Structures are given as structure tokens and as C-alpha cells.
Predict the 3D structure of the following.
Amino acid sequence: FGVVNGIEIYSMKIDSKVTSRFAHNVITSRAVNRGNVHKEVVFDVELPKTAFITNFSMTIDGVTYPGIIKEKEAAKKQYEKAVSKGQTAGLVKASGRKTEKFTVSVNIKAGSKVTFELTYEELLKRQFGKYEMFIKVKPKQLVKDFEIAVNIFEPQGITELEAEGTFITNDLQNIIKKTFSEKKGHVSFKPALDQQRTCANCSQSVLDGDFTVRYDVKRPTPDSLQIVNGYFVHFFAPTNLPKLPKNVIFIIDISGSMSGREIQQTREALLKILDDIKEDDFFNFILFGSDVHTWKETLIKATPENLDEARKFVRSIDTEGMTNLYGGIMRGIDMLNDAHEGKLVPKRSASIIIMLTDGQPNVGISNTQDIQAHVKKAIEGKYTLYNLGFGYGVDYNFLEKMALENKGLARRIYPDSDAALQLQGFYDEVSNPMLTDVELNYPENEISDLTKNSFKHFYDGSEIVVAGRFIDNNQNYLAVDVRGEGANDALSYTTHQDAEQTAKAFQEQEYIFGEYIERLWAYLTLEQLLEKRIAATGEEKENLTAEALDLSLKYKFVTPLTSMVVTKPEDYDNQDGIADKPTEANYMNFDGDPHFIVPVPQKDDAICFNINENPGTVLNLISDPVTGITVNGELIGDKRANNDTKIQNTYFGKIGIANKYLHLQLIVTPEKITIKNGNEKTGFTWLDSVTVQQDGLTLTINREKNLVLSMGSGVSFVIVLHQVWKKHPLHQDFLGLYVLESDKLSEQTHGLLGQFFHGIDFTILELHPGSDPKKPDATMIVKNKELTVTRGWQKDYRTDPKHGVDIPCWFVHNNGAGLIDGVHTDYIVSSLF
Ligand SMILES: *[C@@H]1O[C@H](CO)[C@@H](O)[C@H](O)[C@H]1NC(C)=O
Ligand SMILES: *[C@@H]1O[C@H](CO)[C@@H](O)[C@H](O)[C@H]1NC(C)=O
Ligand SMILES: *[C@@H]1O[C@H](CO)[C@@H](O)[C@H](O)[C@H]1NC(C)=O
Ligand SMILES: *[C@@H]1O[C@H](CO)[C@@H](O)[C@H](O)[C@H]1NC(C)=O
């Protein structure tokens, strides 16, 4: 128990300190190799994408190997240098997902201990009236000493504090301890080993999911200004304002690609949204396929009758034709212009455009740069544009640029069963504007490096944060002019603060990390520079990049411009065992000759078959239209044909894995590994030992052994390298493939291997002697067919790549005839991609 593959993680601590919304988190994981050979220890954690990693180190037998933050190019060079010296190095990159994975692995000697320590920082954002921090918890084994400790200090005073975990059962609920009084809040979660078990004697851990802490602070006034050491931060969140009426135009893509589940989920979400529209609001729907359709000619008031009519309309929305995105969005802008000019909508109101698309414009104006330019000119800063990109077929970059240029933001809607909820959740965030045109003005001659200080909308339950630096480092007084337009009148007042008051508010704070305001300012500045950079071009983009890089290096933030390089100890490579050993019980594979093994877990047994085809043949192994993942393999033969047998021995000599939505291709041969990302190509050899993280992909190459590729949806592929003696007269090097977490692929997955991911069952009727006395034959009922099968063994090379481990299985003859859908030649494709 608690020991997985010889590695025991005996301690894991997540220590989080939050001061004025700025969170500083340290994850410490300690492991020992209880086996009697070298073992690979993997440390992987998922972080919120809004966080920046700021430090990492690993300590092996008392020696600390620090991670160093470098500019991406420099990091790459250092990595290449380390590899060319035969050293191994880990390369950590920020990637652009909802959470991002940080992975480092190291080989440690039998009996040795390793400590990993990772630090990351994040500014907690207020949403729906609460600050929320989530911690992804997944120790993957029972941990003797497991603890999450959160300490919050809020000088304004804490009003509520909640903590919950998606994995928390009734039994675990009272292990979460939380207390708060005045300015301090504490949350601790420390389940004992037995409390971590999924059942009384199980060795599996229940700790797998999100642990979330939420709190809010007192707000006697809308403003909280804090001044420390020449920096200031201003939190602005007025309460009890009357709601502003809003004018919302929904612009919905109904092109053919939305048909099926997507349009169904869109209808579902719009119906829910209609329930939330307030009577003072105005709204309308614009649909675009090849043509543009409007529900009503003008914006209409959300009376109960109109909402009822809208529901009928939404239920009737169907798909048609191509994607005239330009036509749809311009019609929406015109309609808002007309409504304001004709004084149809209240003067004091917020106008919002929400566009949903799953594709790329291809009717009307389809050049995205032209669309952007026209839209910006037409909106003129008057309305907020939100772009929702449904699925992976969208040009998200374009949607994001266009939204940012028009004071909104873009969001990806993941094509999943909860897509309707994602849409509705987004609407909730932006559906309650309380103020428009908010400006926080500070004396220009006193402040430099001010973060963004003007905002189109202030939404109920959110918070505006502005930070800056005093030109005179010793200045300890600040006045600010606050302005905004509310439902009934304009908001306008001046507020001020001095450093002494801040110091007083912080008095009881024992662990002030003094420069927290400076780091908060750096974090916010960086976040905004990176966002501005998205829509910028040319020299402006170069300047923004340079500025952001400077800050990332100065404050040691891992951002998209920097990498963390960890150079691992030199002499830890070894011949024993296979690195990065996957522990999931459920896997699918082919390996050698090419043997396919299909596990049947409910029978604790397996079915296997071979495919005999000529060298050069390419077989489709997996194809999933939903995730866009395809895996094909090309056969090679022996060095020369074997005259003795009719059937030529074949192996997989080239494997191609593609994800069409991520525009990624991975080509693996026994010589080299190539990643193609659009037009970008990166090459490695099997002599490399490296972890590469790019948007949506994590690739770990374990020198001369195997590689592990994880993609978007969570599915992982392990490719094992089989090396034969270089001068072998007949055989040549070949590859094996194993698929982990195949349930992360969709139900529509097919292919020689993929068709079995949905599970299969069989019945053995009678056993009788076969042609080989050691291998009995039997009659198997599978897929309503009766097949003659033979008891045999196939080798699983995951754990022992040299000799393999024998897996007993029922062998289906004649290229899997009767077991696979169709015949094996149906799976022959013309090329690797
Ligand atoms: C990073 O972590 C290591 C190990 O705990 C520590 O010695 C070092 O001071 C930290 N660096 C920074 C910049 O905090
Ligand atoms: C757990 O294991 C112990 C000792 O092997 C056994 O006596 C007990 O019945 C088991 N409990 C369960 C619930 O399986
Ligand atoms: C970029 O930076 C240079 C040097 O500071 C400056 O002269 C130039 O005006 C900047 N360009 C833009 C577009 O901001
Ligand atoms: C295979 O057959 C060819 C022609 O029949 C012959 O020339 C060659 O020597 C044979 N090879 C072996 C390994 O027996």
C-alpha cells in the first residue's frame, strides 16, 4: 500500500498563503524509492492557467537542483547543450489551456529520497461575489502525510469562507477544517492514510479532483487602497448599485457544421438564458449560415410575451449552409446603432454583443483581418463584443483578437456534454452590468507603470483591480478620482489613503511577504501585457514582448515567453526497467509482429490477433472524429524476405499520430521523432531524454526506451522502441504502441484498435485439443459470431522492453476475422496522414 511501482510518495503538502487576493502556493512532494533498482519518479501537477510558476527545485539525497527561469530561446539552447553532453534535462513551459501541466521526472537510486518543491502565484479574481481558488488534487497513490493548508489574510476583514472538494464524501467532509475571524482565515484538509482509501482495504486514493476555497471580504466602502514600499493597489467593488438595463444581441452560427449536438446544446443554453433575461432588458437574435436571418427587425423589450415568442423561435433554430460570420456581426452592430439613434433603448444601458461560432468565416468577407478592421470601425468602442468559440474548428486567435479590440473577451466552449452549461455560465458572468465607462484616475505626475484603469463595464459580484508604482519611492499618500455611469446617475467621487493606514491594517499579519504588492503589480502588468500582445502587430507587438519578457525574468514568472529549465543529475540513467511506467490497468496495444492485444477486464482475460500484410502497408489503428485524433502505422519487414515461411514477418516501422483540431502531427520511427505543429517542425532522436509541452500536447521521450504522448482530451499513447542487435541478419528495429485512458476518446472512435475502446465481451463454449498440444482450441462467441480460437500468449513489452511479459489470451485467426468490424483490408489507408 502507498507504494506504486516501488515508489512511495510519503508526503505531499500544498501550502497556500493569500494576502489581499494575491496567492502564493508551494507544493512539496517527498518520495522514496523502496525498490531495489533505479526507478523513475514523476512529479506532475496541474495548475490553473491564470497562475504563473515562480520557482521549482528538486532535492536528491540532500543535493538541491534548482530550476532556472530563462527566455524561451535561451532555455532551448541550454537544454540542447545538456542533451549533447549526455545529460538529461527537463524543460517546463507554460501552455495555453484551462489548467496546465507541470511535469518533471527523475531517476533515483534504490533507497534514495527525492523532494520536489514547486511555487506558483496568482491573483484571485472575484466572480459572483466570491474570490475562488482551486487546487487540483491527484496524488495517484495513498500518501502517509497529505495536507492542504490555506492561510488567508485580508485587511478588509473576511465575511465568509467555504472549502469543498469534488471528491469529498460525507466521511471526508468533517476532515476539512475551516475557521475565520476578522482578517484571518484558515482552511486545512489532512486526511489520514485510511481516510484516503476508496474502500476499506483498497489501495486506490479517493483524492482525485478539485479542491476549492471561496471567500469574500467586508465592503463598508467600494474602495480599498493599499500602499506598501512605493507601490499601490486599488480594489474597487461597489455594492448595492441598481442594475443597469442591458441590450443584448445574440449572434448565432447556424452553419452546417453546427448540426447535431452543437445546435441542440445551443438551443438548450439559449432557452435557459431566456429565463434569466430581466424585463428591463432589450434583446434580439441574429442567425448566420450562408445568409443572415434576424428574429425581429429591431431590439425588443423582454416582456413575458416576447420571451415566450423567443422561446418558440429558439426551439425552431436549425442549421443551414456555410458561415457568413461577417454578415451576422455587422447586422448586429447596425441594429444596436439604430436602437440607440432611434432612442428605442434607454440612454443609460449597457450594450452587449455575444457571438457564438464553431467555424471559420467563408461567405461574404472571409479574410479575418478585414473582418476585424471593419468590426472595430463599426463598433467604435460603443459596445462590448464577446466571442464564444465552439469546439476546435474555430480560428480562436481571430475571435480573441476581435473581442479584445472591442473591450470584450473570447471564451472557448469545449465540445462536451456540458457545453450548454458552459454557455449559460458565461452569460451569467456578463449579464449583470452595474456601471459602464468606469475610470479610476490617479495623479499622472505621481504614478508610473499604471495597470489598466478604464473599464467598459463593472459586473455585479466582480472587482476591478488597478496597481501602480509611485514615481517618488517615498510617497505614502494617494488620492483617486472614481467615475462611472450607473442606471440612474453618474458615479463620481474622490477617495484617498496613506501608507500608515495600510501598515495599521496589516499589523496583525505575521507573515507579510513584504513585496506582495510589488509582485501583485508585476503579475497584473504581465497579464495585461500578454493580453495586449494578442491583438498587437509589428513594432508594437515587439515592444510589448520585450517589456513582458523583462518583467517575467525580473520577477521570475514562467510565462509564454519564458521556460523553466531543470538540469537533472548526470549519472542516473540506467538499463533496468522502463521509465515513466504507466499504472493504469486498462490499456490497448499492439507490439511486435504486429500483435494486437485487446484486454477484457470483466473476464480478467484478453483477446489477441495478428495482421499479416506486406511491408509498406499503412493501417488505420485509431480514428476519432470527435477529438480529431488519428493513429496510423506503417509496416516494415525483415531485412530480407524469409524463404521458409509463406508469411512475411512484419512490424510497425513508422507510427503517425495526428490531432487535426490542434494541427499537430507526431511521426515516430526507430530513428527519430518529429513534431509538426502547423508549419513548425521540431525533431528529436531516441538519444534524447526530454519533456516537451506545447499547447495541448505533452511529449516525454525516455532515451532509447519509450515515449509518452498526452493530448488534448487526456488520452495518452506510449510508443516503445524495440532495438535489435545492429548486425542482426534478419530483424530490424521496430515500434510498439500502447494506449492509456482510451476512454478519453469519443464513442465514435474506430480503427483496428479503436473499435475495442468501447469494451467487448465474449463467452468460451468448449475447449478441445488443437494442432499444438500445448495450446488448446476453443469455440468463442463474440459479437454474435462463433469463432474457433486458440489459447496462446502474446508479449507485453511495457515493463520489460527486452524480453516482454507473457500475457495469456485467446488468439483469433485469419487477421482477426469475425472479431474486427469488416475485414482487415478495410483498415488499409493510403498514407500515414
Ligand atoms: C526557490 O526554491 C528553493 C528551494 O526551496 C529556495 O532555496 C530558493 O531560495 C527559492 N528561490 C526563490 C527565488 O524564491
Ligand atoms: C480487510 O482485510 C482484512 C485482513 O486481510 C480482512 O480481515 C477484512 O475482512 C478485510 N475487509 C474488507 C472489507 O474486505
Ligand atoms: C517601441 O519602442 C521604441 C523604443 O522604446 C519606441 O521608440 C517606439 O516608439 C515604440 N513603438 C511603438 C509602436 O510603441
Ligand atoms: C531465398 O530464395 C532466393 C531465391 O529463391 C535465394 O536466392 C536465397 O538464397 C534464399 N535465401 C535464403 C535465406 O534461404
